[in-house]
Design brief:
By secondary structure, the protein is an alpha+beta fold. The protein folds into two domains: 66 residues, Ribosomal Protein L9, domain 1, CATH 3.40.5.10; 78 residues, Ribosomal Protein L9, domain 2 (Roll). 34% of the residues lie in helices and 25% in strands.
Amino acid sequence: MKVILREDNDKLGKVGEIVDVKRGYAINYLIPQGLALVANDKNLSVLREEQKHKRQKLDKDLHDAEKLKEELEKVSCTASVQVGEEDKVFGSVTSQDIANLLAEKGFELDKRKISLDEPIKALGIYDVPIKLHHNVEAIIKLWVVKK
């Protein structure tokens, strides 16, 4: 039975390919799971429309991420921390702290998008990368100063 794949499959092929599979596999697994459609002209046009909408959504997401990157790179945040003798920082500045500082400036970001290798434990100026999209990364300036 010929089917059109709706998702990539390691053993069968890529999205949009027409493959020949056993009838039982197609009817009992691929089609009910939404992984494939019966190969005919109507379903082929449906799949093309779905792919067109996916491309449009990805393009829009990329455009939005690039726009947000431009806005974020103009921002600089200041984290005030308590320090002890010889300017040793009590605690650290984490990605959650940075997300909160950005929220105060009107940017609601998930802390998991902020790419800190480890929490910041010293005073200074830091470049903090923020992953907005798999192709777009913004860098903000973070000033860690004592209270």
